[in-house]
Amino acid sequence: MHDKPDALDAGTRMRRARADLESGALRGDALRELLLSVPAFERDGWVDALLGFEEPPPDVADLPRGAVPYLPSGVDEILAMVAEVPLRPDDAFVDLGSGLGRVVMLAHLLSGARAQGVELQEPLVHRARARCAELALPRVSFVHANAADIELDGSVFFLYAPFNGEMLSAVLRRLEDVARRRPIVICTVDLELHGVPWLRERETGKVSLTLYDSCVRGVPLR
Ligand SMILES: C[S@@+](CC[C@H](N)C(=O)[O-])C[C@H]1O[C@@H](n2cnc3c(N)ncnc32)[C@H](O)[C@@H]1O
Questions:
Q1: Quick check: 209 pLDDT over 60?
Q2: How far apart are CA 30 and CA 216, in angstroms?
């Protein structure tokens, strides 16, 4: 017989959750319910312990102009994004400026979608790949690149204010190219894209999270 989660001490609960995560038993709604059962003020740290994230390395000294240093998104924003897009197993999710990979891994674990991170800082990419390999997540990958310099593809893109200025303009041009081929959703945290003519903003239940649907002529909405 299983104990109720509330009846378990914190250490036992974490050990069981890790074992279930590694065996593939903890996915989708079961993971979502478990995360929501953790008190909100502990949730971010709890998820990092579950995924095995340690302190990030310091940001590299020579970040290019317009690039924002590493800071992880809140788990609540990620839960809201997955539910409100809604992210599906047949989506191709891309986090532009993925840091240690918290968003990429959770997006995949919660939805089953293929998920990719694009990150400028090589030490962060190495850490993210190592965690992914340990958790055996073959549908999750990380590219070491400047998002403004590579061809992009995917159906759902996530940006936690990773860059600004000309770098953001260049990435938006690349995203518009994707949207000419297929409908896309762009999810932003603490970043407004109000003046972009090919995007339509959607209301969300979270002030810090905004969703935009592409509306390039001839390409239907998702
Ligand atoms: C605010 S953090 C967001 C991290 C992650 N997306 C999350 O929400 O947890 C921004 C990240 O974007 C990365 N970054 C900044 N400019 C970039 C660029 N041009 N291409 C790829 N990554 C970039 C930074 O190194 C940093 O890790």
A1: yes
A2: 37
